[in-house]
Amino acid sequence: MVIEPEGVLNSYIKTTLDVKADDKTIPENVWDIILDNSFEAVTNALKYSGCSEISISIMALGEVVRCVIKDNGKGAENVVDGMGIQGMKQRVRNVKGYFDIETLGGFTINMILPIKGKEGKQNGND
Q1: pLDDT over threshold 80, residue 58
Q2: In sequence order, what are the residues at sequence separation of 6 or more whose Cβ sits closer than 8 angstroms to the Cβ of residue 81?
Q3: For a FRET experiment, which of 3, 23, 86, 119 has its CA 20 to 30 Å from that of 44?
């Protein structure tokens, strides 16, 4: 898939989406977090990174799902915790997940989101 960012002529971003999960095993609220944070991460990449590639990887691993959003842009020495990154962190923390940022060799967002809550019920709209 190739995306032409709005307002950037003759500039294309190669995108990759790799999903290794049965969508029925991941609750709707977790998909919502993945979608919202992916939108935010891609928007930030297009605005700030100067990247030519963005990849999103989603993998179900037992009782958690791992989502990695990565670009090959310039990265950042100091990450400014603006409203976008704060919102991504808060969405993940609301479900007691893990959120991490790596800034070497591009910009990478790592999320680990629980599929099931403490009681063994699916984490979502039970």
Answers
A1: yes
A2: none
A3: 23
Residue type, 83: M
* Residues across the chain: 126
List the one residue out of 53, 30, 47, 64 whose CA is nearest residue 106: 53
Please report the pLDDT score of residue 70 as a whole number.
97
**Amino acid at site 76:** A
Buried b (16+ CB within 10 A) or exposed e, 25-58: ebbebbbebbeebbebbbebbbeebebeebbbeb
Q: Find, among 99, 56, 98, 102, the residue nearest to 79 by Cα.
A: 102
In 3D, which of 16, 20, 19 has the Cα closest to residue 3? 16
What is the pTM for the complete model shown? 0.83
